[in-house]
Design goal:
This protein has two helices and three strands; from the N terminus they run ββααβ. The chain is an alpha+beta fold and 94 residues long. It has a three-stranded antiparallel β-sheet. A hairpin with a 7-residue loop joins strand 1 and strand 2.
């Protein structure tokens, strides 16, 4: 299966032209990856302040206005590595 036909629910939107920004979007149902890529590209293109001057914050606002069922996770993500030395510290939720 090609990436264009893959469906997912969680997406990390990357900044245009190596901008060091990223946004996490969650969709209520699986969405074709290319659909999200098109939506993000559209939003970046039509909110840019000029050639190679993206306004990523405005682009996210436009994306969410065009796709109101999608949710922006307004938090940084943290990479978690396995640490077997602390594995026994886990307490299950009740």
């Amino acid at each position: 299966m090609s990436a264009a036909n893959t469906t997912e629910r969680v997406f990390r939107l990357m900044g245009y032209s190596n901008a060091q920004v990223q946004f996490i979007i969650v969709t209520p149902e699986p969405v074709i990856v290319q659909t999200v890529q098109a939506a993000w590209s559209y939003a970046v293109r039509y909110t840019a302040k000029g050639i190679d001057l993206p306004d990523h914050e405005a682009a996210v606002r436009m994306l969410l206005s065009r796709h109101p069922s999608w949710t922006l996770i307004e938090s940084k993500t943290v990479d978690i590595l396995v640490n077997l030395a602390i594995a026994d510290n886990d307490v299950p939720e009740n």
